[in-house]
User: Fold these one by one.
Assistant:
Number 1:
Amino acid sequence: MPPLPTRRRSLTLAGTVKSQAVTLAAPLGVSWLTLGANTVLGGALTHFGVVPRTVDGLRGILFAPFLHGSLAHLVANSVSLLILGWLVLVFGGRRQFYWVSAAAALGSGLCAWLLGASGSVHIGASGVIFGYLGYLMLSGWFARRFWPFVASIGVTAMWGGMVFGVLPGQLGISWQSHLGGFIGGIWAARMLRARR
């Protein structure tokens, strides 16, 4: 099959980049709108986060990734989500991005619900971000192919230090969410690569 003409390849690349931008912008847009609404409401939406070992706290598995405690919290998560989320899109495509996001959110929420301190509230997208990290670090290993493996090594070299965030440490940081999201990302890498 002859190579695509340069213009057609440019259009295809532009379409792919546009699709990836929309895919990433949607959850970020919801998070920014939610932060605005939560600020106006005086933090009333925060109780929709994960509250460990309570029935109402289970709804936080769905809502917590879109809730943030401050502008600085959301900005930090937005940058990481854009970079690592885009890499998940590049490596696996949109369908795998959705699966990895869901697995990371589920793992993050369940781990925070099971291991979090009583009465605490866990919010933020960092658990999903750690899921992307787990997926990117190990998807190449599970794929058993050279270039995906090299890409995983590259991600590990650049962002592997984040892994320490799954350990108990700084007060106010949900290591439980990080740990659960990371496990969810690894599980997604294993299941998606096995399916392929």
Number 2:
Amino acid sequence: MARYTGPSTKIARKFGEPIYGADKYFEKRNFPPGQHGAARKRGRKATEYGNQLKEKQKVKYMYGVLERQFRNTYDKASRMAGQKGENLLFLLESRLDNIVYRLGIAPTRAAARQLVLHRHITLNGAICNIPSAQVKAGDVIAVRERSKSLEVIQNSIASASKYSWLEFDANTLTGKYLNVPTREEIPENINEQLIVDLYSK
């Protein structure tokens, strides 16, 4: 499956929540897409497997990860000490594109991915164009000198949210990944146990 590049509101409506962030179009039509979308919202109850699959698909779309990448990330989380579901979220949160998004350098994860791919971001002083690169505690993420004037970056920083596990200097456009966030600090509405149950079948 290729990476999804279609309308984000359509996917948000499919899952019944604005998974890509604030979306004024979703607020107007917060039911599944299609001719019978509003009726489907009131339709038959989903099965246990259906709920598990839907949660996995939601997280995949949310973080912009393909099926094989997601499965590999889950397998890595399974080998780590602690809760599998929480480990999975910690690994997804530690991706370079997600850190760029969390720092406020990009308005969305998709935009963050593009900034990384186009070599606008450095990791510990070296250019890194791999969105899935795992960032470790203490790593420094910054915008390249020649890219600091990009309008998308300047506009995004102006309305950025703050996170306790990240440090960011808006003057130098340099951030630091202080530590792995706790589960309570990750704001997305995710039931990771459903994903663990799905892969445990």
